Amino acid sequence: MTKLRTVVSVAAALVLAACQETASPVSSNAPSTRPAFAVGGGQSGLTLHPGGLGEQSFAKWEAHEGEPDSKGNADQALYFQKLTATATFAAAFAVIDGLQGQSASELTNLSWEHRSTDGWCGAGAPRWNVGVTDAAGDHTVFLGCNAATHSPGGTDGWLTDSYSESDIQSAMAAVGVDLTTATISSLAILFDEGTDVGPGFVFLDNITVNATVWTKPADNSN
Q1: Closest CA to 177 of 140, 210, 128
Q2: Rounded distance, CA 63 to CA 80, Å?
Q3: Burial of 174 (0-12, 13-18, 19+ CB in 10 A)
């Protein structure tokens, strides 16, 4: 219960920061780097916790909406929804726990596949929010879906949106992060663009942080 409260507190802080700052997605032509499919959260100690804040906004795993899972036949995808206006203080999110305190240079690959037949891939949502701390203080780095490197997904109707190590480090440097001293304080996926700019939802699958891939909730560490 204590860990859950901590995760929710971190998520709330991320949403507050996202609503108060302007996203600056980074564009890139770097090639996509995809790890082996069957690497699960249990091998890395990382966990992913979906949730939501505000009106009609949440994230949750949905069966039979995604690509083939690493095990089983539920074909789950992580659904993000904000069925209200972008200006409304609300967001769907997924917090990735387990990277805190590691060097920022350890973050080498961020990607997901989004269902392109119906979901939204905008400049600011879905996006990675990377929190880092260096000697100067705290920084939030935004990596938006639209500016990612795009390539065909694992099945028809899905696109891979990826940020390589060089993309991530360039984005950090652009907001003044000292990569020689910076450590990771938080990592999350945020969806806070609403129905005034798009459909207000997206399905994500094969969510990847470095070599850890989530295809379903059971890919979390035990």
Answers
A1: 140
A2: 14
A3: exposed
Number of domains making up the chain: 1
What type of residue is 187? L
| pLDDT, tens digit, 9 for 90 and up, residues 182-191 | 999 999 999 9
Q: What is the pLDDT of residue 129?
A: 98
132 with 182: CB under 8 angstroms?
A: yes
Residue 47 near residue 97, CB atoms below 8 Å = yes
For residue 109, give the H/E element and its range: strand 109-115
The amino acid present at 1, given as its one-letter code, is M
Phi, psi (deg, nearest 5) at residue 138: -95, 145
* Cβ atoms < 10 Å from Cβ of 121: 22
User: 20 Cβ partners below 8 Å, 6+ apart?
Assistant: none
Question: Residue written as tokens 């696109």?
Answer: 159
Q: Is the pLDDT of residue 2 over 70?
A: no
Phi and psi at residue 63, in whole multiples of 5°?
-75, 150
Token pair of 96 as six digits:
């990735």
Give dist(CA 169, CA 179) in Å, integer: 8
Give 221's pLDDT tier (boundaries 50, 70, 90).
low
150: β partners: 161
Q: Which two tokens stand for residue 1?
A: 């219960």
- Domain residues for the domain of 131 are 2-219
Residue 25's domain is classified under what CATH number? 2.60.120
